[in-house]
Amino acid sequence: MTGRSVLVVLYEGVQSLDVTGPVEVFTGACSASGQPDAYRVTTAAPGGGPVRASSGLRLLPDADLAGAGPVHTLVVPGGEGTRHPDPALVARIRELAGRAERVVSVCTGAFLLAEAGLLSGRRATTHWAHCEALARRFPDVEVDPDPIHVRDGPIATSAGVTAGIDLALALVEEDLGRETALVIARHLVVFLRRPGNQAQFSAQLAAQVAARQPLREVQRWIAEHPEADLSVGELARRSALSPRHFARAFAAEVGVPPGRYVDGVRLEAARRRLEDTDDGIEEVARHCGYGTPEAMRRAFVRALAAPPAEYRRRFRPEPTGGH
């Protein structure tokens, strides 16, 4: 099938990267596939006039949202404008979604889909910082804060900002094949194979920064020395606290127990080494604090559903020729 129409919704306070990321992917697919009409991408806003993105960038839509459609893929970006959405905008999204084959949200665009009743009883995600708010505001939505993107039937939701590119690449791969998606990914200098279930954010981003200086220093030490003895007893010694007091204070100020925090930092360090170096699996395990390669393998399978060697195959940039 060719000529899939893609409609990207614009509104005041939209996040410009939520718009341009998917647009670049879908338009790039036309040249990458050798099918100039593979996608027909249109932007539309209420009233058809220009809108201001949350960054202040002025965006000029192609059409008035009121007259848009029918559409194959409806893309609803996020942005500050989702906080208090215009009911007319929500109603129009609901109407267009009812006739679309696929509905896609980027970042906090999931709030607009939820307002329209499109996520009721479905699994969805959004930017990690807004997942709790989405779940609280719409209790009938099964919010998963971890994946980069989630597909539930004809509706797909993605995490923050650049995750919209990941989701758009996944849709292009579904429509036009892996080779086309790979060409686009290389052109945009992004990974094609970042799967939807990959974690949204790093261990450091996921956790809070401790208020007290000794605990902040412990967080810094953990990040810089994943291979060290990071037991509660040793970390407590570094912070001049008793192990029991340290464990309680760390969990209260950072938001996770010290053991879980250490596990996340070590996993992230191992992921970076696998992506950025030629180190063998055994060497990576040693540098990142895993006692054995088997211990690292179990950690990867549990957290990422892929053993280290498979993770490296998926995510390490492929070598390219150069001068």
Describe the structure.
This protein is an alpha/beta fold. It has helices at residues 16-32, 87-99, 109-115, 131-137, 163-176, 178-188, 203-206, 213-224, 232-238, 243-254, 258-276, 281-287, 293-304, 308-315, and strands at residues 4-9, 39-45, 51-52, 58-59, 63-64, 73-76, 102-105, 123-124, 142-143, 149-152, 155-158. The chain has a seven-stranded mixed β-sheet, sandwiched between helices. Strands 3-4 form a two-stranded antiparallel sheet. The longest helix is centred in the C-terminal third of the chain and has 19 residues, at 258-276. It is globular.
Strand and helix map with partners:
Blueprint: E1 4-9, H1 16-32, E2 39-45, E3 51-52, E4 58-59, E5 63-64, E6 73-76, H2 87-99, E7 102-105, H3 109-115, E8 123-124, H4 131-137, E9 142-143, E10 149-152, E11 155-158, H5 163-176, H6 178-188, H7 203-206, H8 213-224, H9 232-238, H10 243-254, H11 258-276, H12 281-287, H13 293-304, H14 308-315
Parallel strand pairs: 1-2, 1-6, 2-5, 6-7, 7-11, 8-9
Antiparallel strand pairs: 3-4, 10-11
Helix pairs in contact: 1-5, 1-6, 5-6, 9-10
Radius of gyration, Cα only, in angstroms?
Answer: 22 Å
Order of helices and strands: EHEEEEEHEHEHEEEHHHHHHHHHH
Number of helices: 14
Instruction: Indicate the structural class.
Output: alpha/beta
Mean pLDDT: 88
Low-confidence stretches: 319-323
* CA distance, first residue to last residue: 40 Å
Described by the principal axes of the CA atoms, the overall outline is globular
- The count of strands amounts to 11
Which percent range describes the beta-strand content?
Answer: 5-15%
Characterize the largest beta sheet: strand count, sense, and whether it forms a barrel.
7 strands, mixed
**Percent in helix:** 40-55%
Strand line-up in the sheet with most strands: 5-2-1-6-7-11-10
